[in-house]
Every structure is written in structure tokens, then in C-alpha cells.
Amino acid sequence: MSTRQTRRKSAKLREEAAAVVDDEHHHQQQEAIVVNGNGLTQPGAVASDPVASENIFLFWPNIIGYARIVLAIASLYYMPVHPRTCSVLYSISCLLDAVDGYAARFFEQSTRFGAVLDMVTDRCTTSCLLVFLSSAFPRWAIFFQGLIALDFASHYMHMYATLVVGGSESSHKNIDKTQSWLLNLYYTNKGVLFTLCCLNELFFIGLYLLAFSSPWLSPHLLKSVEATSGGHINPGAPVNTSLLRQMFPDPFSAAALEIARTNKMDSLVPWAIAGISLPFMIVKQIINGVQLFNASHSLAEVDIKMRQEKGLPRKKAKAKRR
């Protein structure tokens, strides 16, 4: 082979090697760029991936979830003195709980963030209403406090057990009939789930309305201004009109109780709401108890297996060897 041909062949090999290096370098650059949900670039994946450019926080089900939070906060603001406005806002917030599920399936936007947001919103809004009921019915405060504790404990334990036993890919709604037929029916049948959750909230709304309508249950919200304030209010007496007082009035002040009496209603409808929804509320609390019991046993079984794998307790193992 001549010297010229050898040089040509060497140059061609160098060009091919340089092309391979450029391709690899370009591929590495593509892999090093990823567009996250907020539109920022981060290392880790291919930028052209359409999934990487999605913003989970702006999915329609999650936007509905944010609207639920706004409505719930507004209902809490009106809760001490405006029962009708509060009940309407609170009810809409609860009903949107079903809408976001349909939106997630329709737009194919079911996410773990959305599921957790939904559950946290449910727990917080119900707890806030129960806190108010504890103030409105102080003799029953321990009952409402117990419901708050049971609600949070059962759902937290259930979610944690689901992650430990089933892994990150599992859903808290995947309950086998062998574990509990009641939980399986509750989580797999959308009609049962919606009915129990809706009527459970409706019972607490009924009690809330009774605080503004039943002198038998809540006389402190319906007695006279003189009896509430401890004396007669003289006309023209100076009144504290600070902005903070106007925005967040004392729910048991004379002025607030006067507003409450103005907004009071007949007790027939609230009693009917509470009476009809009471059995469903009881079933919902039973389900919470069963959920807490099953989750505790699932975690205990995992602990037993882990201890066996580690050879614990070591004292018994040594005794068997002897």
C-alpha cells in the first residue's frame, strides 16, 4: 500500500472516530437536560420527553382541589356568625371532592399528589368543622375531639401501611376482600364511598345549623345580649371598631351573638338533616375504626417478618441452640 493511500485511510478513520465522539457527546447533552413541571431544566432525562414537560400542579383535578381549599377557608371565616353562607360554601367544597375524581379519569390526570391533596383537604376541613362544634357544644367536646383523632389516625395508619406493604406503586384504595369486605366495598364502590362521605359531612353540617336554631342544644348562641354581656348596653356607648375586630369578630361577643340571632333559622330542617344522616355517620366511623385496626395488624405482620429475618429476639435463638 502506498504512503498516500495510508494517509487517506488514517484520515478517514480519524473522521469516523470524531463523528462517533460527537454523537456520544450530543446524546449525553440530551440526557443531561430535563424540563420539570415548572418549566425549569434539571439533569436526568431527555428534554424531548412530552411527560417531562407536564406541570402536575396545574392538572385540572388539582386546580379543583385548590378551589376546594379556597371555599373551605371562606366557609371557616363565615362559620361563627353566618350559618347559611358557611353551609353553602362548605357543601360546595365537599361536593367538588367527587368532581375532581371524574376530572382525573376524564383527562387521564390521576396523580399521587392529587390523591394526597384530596385526602388532606378532606381531613382538614372536617376537623375544622368539628373544632367549631366542640366550641358550640362544649359538653360534647370530647366526642368531637375523639372523632378528629380517629379520622386522622385511621387514614394516616392506612396510608403508611399501604406504602410499607404494597410499595410506592400501590394505592390505598386497593383493598382485597380477604383483608376486609367492608373496606373493599367502601373503596371500590364509588356509590357507597360518595354516599357515606357525603352524609357523614351532612350530619356535622346539621349539628352546625342546630347551633343557630335549637335553644335546647345551644342556648348560649340564642340568649339575649344583656344576658350574654352581663349587663345592659347603653345607646351611644363607644364600640371597638378596629379593623382586626371587624375582620375576626369574637364569635361569642354580644355583637356576634346578635348577628347569629339575626341569621338563626327554624330547627326543623337541621334536625331532619342530622337525624337522617346519623346512621351513615356511625357507619363511616365504624369504617374508620376497621381501617385503623387492619392497618395496625398489617404493620405488625411486617414487623414480625423483619424481626424473624434478623433473628430476633436473640435470646430465644440462643436458647433453642442449647
TrEMBL record:
GO terms for molecular function: CDP-diacylglycerol-inositol 3-phosphatidyltransferase activity. GO terms for biological process: phosphatidylinositol biosynthetic process. The keyword Transmembrane applies. The keyword Transmembrane helix applies. It is found in: Membrane. It comes from the Eukaryota. The chain crosses the membrane at residues 63-81, 87-107, 128-150, 191-211. PROSITE patterns: CDP_ALCOHOL_P_TRANSF. Keywords: Lipid metabolism, Membrane, Phospholipid metabolism, Transferase, Transmembrane, Transmembrane helix. It is a multi-pass membrane protein. GO terms for cellular component: Golgi apparatus; membrane. Belongs to the CDP-alcohol phosphatidyltransferase class-I family. This is CDP-alcohol phosphatidyltransferase.
